[in-house]
Amino acid sequence: MSVSEENEEENDDETEKKYNCPECGRGFNRKFNMQTHRATHDPNRVKPFACEHPNCGSRFTRKHDLKRHINGIHKGEKVHECTVCRKPFSRKDAWKRHIATCGKM
User: Biased composition, Acidic residues: where in the chain (predicted)?
Assistant: First the structure.
């Protein structure tokens, strides 16, 4: 399992997080992951990976994030589906947040 997969699994847990981002409140189980996340709020952060889709203009710090953006936004890949309402998601983290509350209202 890669580090990014481990981080994704860690952040998807439904347990209470020990470390919260002071900017947005997002919770993390590890201090290192929260500190890495905090950099996303820096408006001067270098983003060398640019989306070349016409009129998009999105930029990313990691090549992986650019690829995920292209697959989910421009190619419309939806590989995760809610078993309750059938809503499709391109990202596993968004799908997991959704299924935690779908049908519980």
Answer: 1-14
Residue 104 lies in a domain: no
CATH code, domain with 76: 3.30.160.60
Q: What global pTM score does this model have?
A: 0.57
Q: Which domain holds residue 83?
A: 49-99
Cα(92)–Cα(11) distance, rounded to whole angstroms?
Answer: 11
Centroid of chain to Cα 34: 13
Q: Give the tens place of pLDDT for each residue, 49-101.
A: 999 999 999 999 999 999 989 988 898 888 899 999 999 988 888 899 899 98
What are the φ and ψ backbone dihedral angles of 81, each rounded to 5 degrees? -130, 135
Q: Quote the tokens at residue 68.
A: 């995920």
Are 25 and 64 in a shared domain?
no
